[in-house]
Design brief:
This protein is of the alpha+beta class. The protein is built from 14 helices and 40 strands. A seven-stranded antiparallel beta sheet has the order 3-2-1-13-12-11-10, sandwiched between helices. The termini are far apart. 44% of the residues are buried. One of its GO terms (biological process) is negative regulation of Wnt signaling pathway.
């Protein structure tokens, strides 16, 4: 259905974008022209002398480029270079439209502020609350699938966190792909298409760190469509693109009939034809450079119109702009935009495209740069391409327009870390890491996608087929980040960190702790279980008993063990298979050496936790219960006793089941109930009076001697020719 709607929309889209584009015009400015002439011939690449912009486009061997300069808060210069379609030798024109890639995110975020303003979707409403309001959707399925181990995390994931990359999700980028219809692209990305394209997953607790996630934008996109009951493309067109004057930009899919759409060619090779961005919010905007510059200008002017005809008219609500341009802790990032003081910016890349915008609100200047060409390629250790060109042009703009104190100088193919190098390169530090000497070399960096080992940099291998990640091979030490156990020396990765498996994985003087429900960790052996101590603080468990570090709870014991806290003995760890309550078939299988009714039970008070005693009722399995409720404990009412019987301020038995094995509950009239040996009970065999609790043996059986020997309100009958007996 979504695909069919897209085709219908493209018919209308073609009518607009195949004709001359009726774009907003730039407003010429003489001062800006002078500054631009200086900038235009000051593009530094790797050579000593600078290039002109036209020559820099040729040197980077990209198809073409467009840029717009903003000055005094208005778009004033629009320039274009090279080819829109290198394969067909069609030149870039004033009407050329580009894949906007990740610079789409700021535009998308304005759609969410509009939805929030309309009461359709709260920026701070949790995914949990969203699912209560909208049950049985792709979002509920996503939560059920990926948050099994972190069930509370969706409570803290909100659209604001999704749009600021602080929701703790993976899936860094959402790539565009050749035109292929898809019945439900959102579902494919959010829930996972196949082994090579896994679901969007949590990687750390929401709100604790910034982690760029195009996958998070995809989740937000689905939430917007559900909340508004409209396709994302339609809602953004009606609430952002049209009202804010971006009439020549669209979130619809690219079509080969869109004659103004740039093609991603580079070095004479056109591998990047018309693209479909299955996911719109993260990078699906097709934008006209002046359209985008108009939006940036409005943002710089608190949403007010800059054109003289309607100057000062509020186009974008200021509150919406404030939402977008406010940092979301802990990030230096707002909603779809990087923020530094009064400066805001964002870059983007798709296959065959590099985009960038930069704005300085205080100085009222900015630039939009859109390039169609391969992002990076290398020649003699020098990195060229759309990304290099884009960055060089923005740098020249900052210098010429007075927002940077840097001087123009050649680029250096040097690095201090892998992140300084282009995609597909790593930082070769040689025997000594020295900035200015280290070189970027071909080879994928750690965490970059790979299909085979030889495309990864040194000391890296490719994990996963057909599409995997470059990672270290058993060299990551305990405590450092990992994404797979094979990366770790210990062979164990828990919660994105290498952890110990045994003491041998820890530094000298440390042991490996393997607590239940927590990640393993190394700690000083001086604090290990069994180490000598004189006070609790000397132990990792914070428990010192009998001059020895012992467990305080199950979490202090190795996996598969529990902490036993017997009365009068030091606590100890033992197999959970032997714990009280564990299944058993014989006494030797239990730590207490007592198996009853197929369960390990206490044999004596020493098998029970502190403050508890072992109860051994007749006909029932032994059990531990609070000593405050034991037989003989002080009481004022029945509920204070385990037996539910309080007499004469003491807990007493109520029935035989409350007494230990071999004893019965005696309930004499006028006296408190008590437990005594069943061998002395009424009815027990006897040969003399002293063998009976009643001190009366008749005809080989213990019988009552008085009413006091009978239960409850019964009376003792003493017939002349028969033995005594109790009766009502």
């Amino acid at each position: 259905m979504r695909y069919m709607k897209t085709l219908l929309t493209l018919i209308g889209l073609f009518l607009v974008m195949s004709a001359d584009v009726a774009a907003y015009k730039v407003i010429p400015n003489n001062e800006a022209d002078v500054l631009f002439k200086q900038m235009e011939k000051s593009i530094f690449l790797y050579d000593k002398d600078p290039y002109t912009i036209s020559k820099a486009v040729e040197k980077n061997d990209v198809a073409g480029m467009s840029l717009v300069i903003i000055y005094n808060g208005k778009p004033v210069i629009h320039k274009w270079y090279g080819d829109r379609n290198q394969k067909k030798k069609e030149k870039t024109t004033a009407d050329t439209i580009y894949q906007c890639a990740s610079t789409s995110k700021m535009v998308s975020s304005l759609g969410f502020t509009a939805a929030s303003r309309q009461g359709k979707l709260s920026l701070d409403g949790s995914v949990t609350d969203f699912n209560k309001k909208h049950p049985d959707t792709i979002i509920t399925k996503w939560v059920d699938k990926v948050f099994k181990d972190h069930k509370s995390w969706p409570d803290d994931i909100t659209p604001r966190r999704l749009l600021s990359h602080t929701a703790g999700l993976d899936t860094h980028g959402i790539a565009n792909k050749p035109w292929l219809p898809s019945s439900d692209p959102l579902k494919g990305v959010i829930l996972g298409r196949n082994l090579a394209h896994d679901a969007v997953k949590p990687i750390h607790e929401p709100g604790t760190k910034y982690d760029y996630s195009g996958g998070g934008y995809t989740v937000a996109e689905a939430m917007l469509e559900i909340a508004t009951d409209k396709r994302f493309e339609t809602y953004l067109k009606q609430n952002v693109l049209e009202p804010y004057g971006m009439n020549n930009s669209t979130f619809e899919d690219g079509s080969s009939d869109m004659v103004h759409l740039a093609r991603g060619c580079s070095r004479g090779i056109c591998l990047y034809d018309v693209q479909v961005s299955e996911l719109k919010a993260a990078g699906g905007l097709l934008c006209h450079p002046v359209d985008y510059a108009r939006l940036v200008s409005l943002m710089m002017n608190d949403g007010a119109e800059y054109l003289e005809k309607n100057a000062g008219t509020q186009i974008i609500p200021k509150a919406d702009i404030d939402e977008v341009l406010t940092k979301v802790p802990p990030a230096e990032y707002g909603l779809g935009v990087d923020i530094s003081g009064s400066q805001f910016s964002h870059g983007g890349k798709h296959q065959g495209f590099a985009t960038n915008f930069y704005a300085h609100s205080d100085k009222q200047v900015g630039i939009v740069v859109l390039v169609n060409g391969k992002y990076t390629w290398a020649r003699n250790k020098e990195v060229y391409g759309a990304g290099t060109l884009n960055n060089a042009v923005v740098k020249a703009f900052k210098i010429a327009f007075g927002v940077s104190n840097e001087s123009g100088q050649p680029l250096k193919p040097t690095c201090s870390q892998d992140e300084d190098c282009a995609e597909g390169q790593y930082c070769d530090k040689g025997p000594v890491a020295t900035i200015g000497i280290n070189k970027c070399k071909a080879g994928k960096k750690r965490n970059e996608t790979c299909s085979r080992n030889d495309v990864c940099g040194p000391d890296l291998t490719c994990y996963g087929e057909p599409i995997g990640k470059c990672g270290f091979l058993g060299t990551v030490v305990v405590g450092d980040q990992c994404f797979k156990g094979k990366e770790c020396r210990s062979g164990k990765c828990e919660k994105d960190k290498c952890v110990c498996k045994s003491d041998g994985d820890c530094p000298d003087g440390q042991a490996c702790y393997t607590p239940i429900g927590k990640a393993n960790y190394c700690a000083s052996t001086s604090k290990a279980l069994g180490a000598s101590c004189s006070k609790n603080s000397q132990c990792a468990s914070d428990k010192c008993q009998q001059d020895q570090c012992v467990c305080k709870g199950d979490g202090d014991c190795p996996n598969g063990q529990a902490c036993f806290t017997p009365v009068g003995k030091a606590n100890y760890c033992a197999s959970t298979s032997k714990a009280l309550g564990a299944t058993c078939s014989k006494n030797s299988e239990c730590a207490s050496d007592k198996c009853q009714q197929d369960k390990c039970v206490c044999k004596g008070d020493g098998d029970c936790p502190n403050g508890q005693a072992c109860y051994t009722p007749i006909g029932k399995a032994n059990y531990c219960a609070s000593t405050s409720k034991a037989l003989g404990a002080s009481c004022t009412k029945d509920s204070q006793c385990a037996s539910d019987k309080c007499e004469q301020d003491k807990c007493v038995c109520k029935s035989n089941g409350d007494c230990p094995n071999g004893q019965s509950c005696y309930t004499p009239v006028g006296k408190a109930n008590y437990c005594a040996s069943t061998s002395k009970a009424l009815g027990a065999s006897c040969s003399k009076n002293s063998q009976c609790a009643s001190d009366k043996c008749e005809q080989g059986e213990c019988v009552c001697q008085s009413d006091n020997d009978c239960p409850g309100s019964q009376k003792c009958k003493t017939p002349v020719t028969k033995k005594n007996y109790c009766t009502k």
